[in-house]
Structures are given as structure tokens and as C-alpha cells.
């Protein structure tokens, strides 16, 4: 076995020294031993199927899963790398029974042997339900079940696409209901298989085709009843996301009323059966016909009521209707009265205007006299003031005014010897010749 490791433990003997020393084996390192054990296990166990209960489940931040598989007597370490576990449709939990396929190997740095898991399937009666609940919680956290993203169904659809098996009972029920309730509705069947492992991608492709039909107003997707396994393709994550991604409103009609699938939660409307889905899209037509009948009845009643009202109005107008001759006579009398009043007004206006003119003339005369009197008083007052300021008043008191030409002499410096001056007295005027000039505090100047 040691030779399988590639080591030669026989010691070469020196033929020349003829020693009898015993051959000593070469010592293995721990790494050599672990590598040998790993090679042995991996060559002995190629691919294995292993069933056990999950325990110590620890998801790593890298995406890898580390856990143990155990039964009632033993346990073994296991690891499932992200590249493999990302393809699973469920997430394992402690206590769940699983069936895995993988390889036995050794983690050399620690010398621990473990199982590399490549696939994993849940076992037991609750395995599918567990997978369903996990996917439901995942999609719910993403908001795919929220009411605000649900698209309203059309009030009066003209074209419906049905994604289902073309040979199943569901399509027959849908067409029967639509033909009975809404014969004018256009129906396009987008065929797909609705059971088995290959059904999910086929349903996704059929939904894509139905959504691309431009004239389609609403899409029905579903099938008839069956076991949980039969309906499982409608719990597929890809199918759920395809329904949520449709631009057109989608009605999920899978199984019977007690059956719930993932498509029911993500669809815009959940119908308990395919027949119920057909009734939903045609219900508005039935309601419309009922409303038309109701409106017709109410319209007849309204017309009858209006005719009765008009008849009463006509009777009332008949009673109020007067003989045209009598009406003309009344109008003639009215015209005569108006004419008399007009003439009276015409005669009264000149008299009133004459009296008004006299009054205005009197008031104008009074106003003019008052104004003249006021102005005369102002003129007298200002004349007296002007007279009191006149230089002649000064002369009347014994003073005189001396002028040289037009110049009034105020200072002797304005005069020269020999000049002629005029002296104005209160009564009379005299001329004089300057023969002597005296200035204040100065000697007099005399003429020759």
C-alpha cells in the first residue's frame, strides 16, 4: 500500500561496507496521509446517493451551505457549494429529510471527510409543501403579491387568450361558458402542457406568446383539478415570475376551489375554477345587459312622467289663454294712457325750465353783486394801504423830495456844485442850483 503513495521505503545497502543495519521505513507527513486517504475515498466512491436528516445547517456569506446528514446512529459532514445550491427550488432547514447525490472526499487541512453535494431533494409527505411555503415567502418579500401591482380586469373585454392544454377539460369548460354568456368575445387558445417536469418552461413560453398578442385584453392561465404533484408546475418560480411580468391582466384558474398554487398569488385575479374564470371575463356583459334592461324600464317611466307633466302644463296654459281681441283692447287702452302721460310731461317741461331759468338768473345776480362788493372792499383796503405808503403823504407832513432829473437824491454825495435840482413840496415844485455842499463832519464846499 505504501508503494501506491509513490514512496520507496527500501534502503539501499552499501555492498562495500557489508553492514547489517536493519531497513528503516520513511516517515509520512500528515499532509501525505490525508492526501492518500482522499485519493482512496474518491477512487472508491464515485457518485453516491445518501439519505439523511439535515442538522447544523449553516449558510455561509459566500453562498455555500455547510451542514450535517444524520440518522439515528451516525452523522457525516456535508457541503453544497453555491453553484449547485442556486439551482434548488427550496432551502433546507434543520430536521428536514433529504436525498442527496454527491461525492465522498476529505478536507485535507483538517483531515475531515465529508460529502460534496451536487443535488438535493426533499423527502416525506411535507416536502413539497415545505418547498411551496419557502417560495411563497420569497416572492412575498419581493412584493409580487402586493395589491398595488394588481392590474384591474377590463370592463368589457373583446379578446381573451387562454393558456392551457388544448385537449383538457378546462378549455372545454371555458369555451362553453363564454359561448353561452358572451358569444361575440374573441378567444385565442395558446396551447401548452400543464403537467409534468417539462410543463413549467412550456407554460412560461405560452404566457410570453399570449402577452405579445396586441389585441388581447385579458389572459386566463390554468388547468383542471388534480393532485398536488399534478398541479406542481403552477408552483414553479419561473411560471410565477412570468405571470407577474405580463403587461396584460392575468386570471389564474388552476384546479378546484380548494387548490391554491403560486400562480394564484401573483396573478391579478384568482378564479377558483376555469369555468369561474370564464364567468369573470363575461360577467360584465351579463351585468351590462341587465343594466340595459333596467335603463330601458327607467327611460320608459321617465318619458311617461314627462308626457304627463307636459299635459298638465298645456292644460294650465289653456286656462291662461286670453281672447286676442281682448288682449288688443287692453294694449290699446295701455297705449292711450301712456300717450296722455307723455303729453303731460311735454307740457310740464317748458314751464319747469322757465321757472328754473328765473331762479338761476336771480341767484346769478346775487352772486355777481356779492362778488363786486367783496372786490370793492378789497380794492378800497389796498388803495388805503398804498396811499399810506406813498411818499406824497410824507411831503404833506412838511417834508420835500429832491430829484436830479429822474433820480431821487438820498445823499449829498449824489450832487455836485452847480447842478440843477428839483424840490417837490406838499404844494408846488421849485428848482434850485447847488452852490454849497456840506458833508457830515466835513468842511463845506462852496462854489466860486
CATH superfamily of the domain at 157-287: Succinyl-CoA synthetase domains
Low-confidence stretches: 1-16, 443-448
* Helix-strand string: HEEEHEEHEHEHEHEHEHHHEEEEEE
Our measurement of the CA-to-CA distance between the termini, rounded to an integer number of angstroms, reads 181 Å
Mass-distribution shape? elongated
CATH architectural group of the domain at 157-287: 3-Layer(aba) Sandwich
Count of DSSP helices? 10
Radius of gyration of CA atoms, rounded to a whole number: 65 Å
Major sheet attributes:
5 strands, mixed, barrel
Number of strands: 16
CATH class value of the domain at 157-287: Alpha Beta
> Looking at CATH, which topology of the domain at 157-287 would you report?
Rossmann fold
Q: What kind of assembly state do the chains in view correspond to?
A: single chain
Helicity range? 40-55%
Helix/sheet category? alpha/beta
Amino acid at each position: 500500500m505504501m508503494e501506491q503513495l509513490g514512496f520507496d521505503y527500501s534502503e539501499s545497502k552499501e555492498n562495500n561496507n557489508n553492514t547489517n543495519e536493519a531497513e528503516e521505513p520513511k516517515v509520512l507527513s500528515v499532509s501525505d496521509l490525508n492526501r492518500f486517504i482522499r485519493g482512496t475515498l474518491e477512487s472508491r466512491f464515485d457518485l453516491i446517493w445518501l439519505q439523511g436528516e439535515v442538522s447544523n445547517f449553516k449558510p455561509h456569506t459566500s453562498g455555500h451551505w455547510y451542514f450535517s446528514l444524520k440518522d439515528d446512529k451516525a452523522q457525516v459532514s456535508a457541503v453544497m457549494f453555491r453553484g449547485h445550491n442556486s439551482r434548488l427550488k427550496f432551502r433546507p432547514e434543520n430536521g428536514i429529510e433529504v436525498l442527496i447525490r454527491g461525492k465522498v472526499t476529505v478536507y485535507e487541512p483538517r483531515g475531515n471527510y465529508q460529502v460534496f453535494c451536487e443535488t438535493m431533494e426533499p423527502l416525506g409527505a411535507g416536502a413539497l409543501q415545505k418547498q411551496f411555503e419557502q417560495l411563497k415567502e420569497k416572492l412575498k418579500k419581493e412584493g409580487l403579491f402586493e395589491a398595488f401591482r394588481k392590474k384591474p380586469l377590463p370592463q368589457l373585454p373583446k379578446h381573451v387568450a387562454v393558456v392551457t392544454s388544448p385537449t383538457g377539460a378546462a378549455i372545454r369548460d371555458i369555451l362553453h361558458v363564454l359561448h353561452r354568456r358572451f358569444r361575440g368575445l374573441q378567444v385565442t387558445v395558446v396551447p401548452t402542457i400543464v403537467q409534468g417536469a417539462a410543463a413549467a418552461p412550456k407554460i412560461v413560453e405560452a404566457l410570453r406568446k399570449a402577452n405579445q398578442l396586441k389585441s388581447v385584453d385579458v389572459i386566463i392561465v390554468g388547468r383542471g383539478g388534480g393532485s398536488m404533484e399534478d398541479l406542481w408546475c403552477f408552483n414553479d418560480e419561473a411560471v410565477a415570475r412570468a405571470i407577474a411580468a405580463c403587461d396584460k391582466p392575468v386570471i389564474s384558474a388552476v384546479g378546484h376551489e380548494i387548490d391554491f398554487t403560486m400562480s394564484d398569488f401573483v396573478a391579478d385575479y384568482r378564479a377558483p375554477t376555469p369555468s369561474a374564470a370564464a364567468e369573470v371575463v363575461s360577467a360584465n356583459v351579463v351585468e351590462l345587459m341587465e343594466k340595459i334592461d333596467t335603463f330601458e324600464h327607467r327611460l320608459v317611466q321617465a318619458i311617461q312622467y314627462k308626457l304627463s307633466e307636459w299635459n298638465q302644463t298645456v292644460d294650465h296654459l289653456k286656462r291662461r289663454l286670453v281672447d286676442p281681441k281682448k288682449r288688443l283692447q287692453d294694449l290699446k287702452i295701455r297705449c292711450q294712457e301712456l300717450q296722455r302721460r307723455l303729453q303731460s310731461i311735454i307740457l310740464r317741461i317748458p314751464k319747469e325750465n322757465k321757472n328754473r331759468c328765473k331762479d338761476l338768473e336771480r341767484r346769478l345776480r346775487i352772486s355777481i353783486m356779492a362778488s363786486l362788493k367783496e372786490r370793492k372792499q378789497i380794492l378800497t383796503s389796498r388803495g388805503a394801504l398804498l396811499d399810506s405808503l406813498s411818499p406824497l403823504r410824507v411831503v404833506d407832513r412838511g417834508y420835500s423830495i429832491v430829484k436830479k432829473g429822474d433820480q431821487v437824491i438820498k445823499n449829498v454825495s449824489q450832487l455836485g456844485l452847480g447842478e440843477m435840482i428839483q424840490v417837490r413840496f406838499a404844494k408846488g415844485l421849485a428848482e434850485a442850483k447847488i452852490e454849497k455842499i456840506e458833508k457830515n463832519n466835513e468842511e463845506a464846499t462852496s462854489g466860486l
